[in-house]
Amino acid sequence: MKKIISLSIFFILTCAFGISGQTTNKAAEAALTKGYNAAENNDFNTAIINYTKAIELDPKFVFAYNNRGLAYKALKKYEESLADFTKAIELDPKLG
Asked: Whole-prediction pTM value?
């Protein structure tokens, strides 16, 4: 569990410092933050809802896919997790 949270924190910080994967869509950023806060409280279903909203607002938002993949992984939904990680790598090959 700590590893999932640590990875989430890494990707949030990476996004905040302007490394690839960020968005200029403020609503998508807000949804990502809500998702992160939910995941931090082990509410992975709510996190997924918020990460999905972020993706709907910005379909190229790498960190939303990555963090949603982490939330799916925490819920042992491995197919969904793999699909999100694959999409994140497709959008930003440096993640692979």
From this structure: 0.79
- The rounded radius of gyration (Å) of the Cα atoms in the chain is 12
Residues in the chain: 96
Angle at which helices 62-74 and 2-16 cross, to 10°:
170
pLDDT in tens, 71-90: 999 999 999 999 999 999 99
What lies within 8 Å, CB to CB, of 11 at 6+ separation is 21, 63, 66, 67
How many whole angstroms separate alpha carbon 69 and alpha carbon 71? Answer: 5
> How far apart are alpha carbons 41 and 93 in whole angstroms?
30
Residues whose CB is less than 8 angstroms from the CB of residue 15 and which lie 6 or more positions away in sequence, other chains included = 21, 22, 29, 32, 63
Mean pLDDT of the chain, nearest integer:
85
